[in-house]
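The instructor's notes for this session suggest beginning with a concrete chain rather than abstract definitions. Hand out the sequence below and ask the class to guess, before any prediction is shown, which regions might be ordered.
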Amino acid sequence: MMMSAVDSPLLYFCIGEKMSLNNDELLNNVKRQAKRLSKKLSIPLGHAQEMLSYIVYGCENWSSLRTSLKSESFDNEYLVLAALHPKADLFLFKLLNNNISSIITRFNIKVAEQKSYEEIKIILVSLFGIELTEFERKIK
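After discussion, reveal the predicted structure:
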């Protein structure tokens, strides 16, 4: 039996009670992340969207990311990060932490201006509207 995207277990997060995010909410989160990246790196929004797609979500481009978020199956584990925000469930913070090295590696491939690991980590965590100190406190 095929599940709809809204029924997908990857879209349910427990915070005391069952809460779900639909595909439109995930897409809106990703759009906000791209705007933050655009501001952080002082680059055009379109460029930030393409970079975000590759760096954080491992997608070829913005169109591919949008299509994946609208899909009924989340075969890319990074897509779950679209639900990460300051009040998200702890497992999302840990998912980002577990994948931060590969995300930073992709960042270094796409961004010509080399930055330190910590500088990149601050940028990446801030894309989700989270301060680095809050992120580090939650993953401990």
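Then share the key points. Residues 1-19 have pLDDT under 50 and may be disordered. The radius of gyration is 15 Å.
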